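Same chain as my last thread, 297 residues:
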Amino acid sequence: MKHIIFTLLFTLTLFHCQSQDLLPFRVDTLWGYKDQQGMVQIEPQFQYATKFIGNVGIVAKNEKFGVIDKKNNQIIPFHCEFLRVLDTTEFLFGYRAKYFGEYIMGVMTQDEKIKIPAEYSYIAKYRNAYTVTKNYDNIIGQSNVGEVRSVVSKYGMFSSDGKLLIPCKFSSISWLNDTLLMVDSALLSAEGKFLMPNNALFNVNGKQLTEFKYRVFGKFAEGVAKARIDNKFGFIFPNGKVAIPIEFDFCEDFSSGYALIKQKNKWGAIDKNGKIVIQPAFDYKEVKAALEEKYSR
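reply #2:
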């Protein structure tokens, strides 16, 4: 029995030691890795070393970054000037841009397959898609430390398999929910300043569902979302079609089948068909109380 217990404890201890994280450490100018007991597992040999994420660590030699595993096997050779773990199987990689601290980056897999070419100023992965950013410089002067510039950023999106879904030419891209995005094609002044948002609804596959004529979309509630064109509000369906005409001075989200609307500083309410159930002739609190009484029946 004692022999069995000893064998079990030895096996568990061995498994723990083999699976534990390695920690970077430095000797003079070189970096290596120790285990949590302080035993050297990878001798100092790198210009820089990050903590392991999963089974990979980013290290540097000769001013270039590469990737190793916990046995110091090379996963990605030392050829990148920028390298960062994106998730357990993918990396942001890239090269130095014109200005200090800036890089042109793309996405590659552990087997060095390029999913997104190194053409972008920044890439973020969210909801299994990649939002990409390109910065465009406009030199507006000189200072004693170099050029003075204004920067305009444009946004696009790639799918999880690296397919371009939305061209990188829009002023912003934001998620409304898991399947819909608001894409802004804002107009610019002659000085490059944004004048006003011109939003359209896109689905997660990159299909444009509405024209670029909306100021804003609200959250989807009870199958519709509040939408604004110029200074008027109404509601749209998730497919981009108008659910209730854009004709109110203001409206709130639907709740329990009704939404508050505002016309000429007076409040009323509509149902899901757009039918006015309370004429806009009351104070907000009066309409709210009337609807709450309906809910409670």
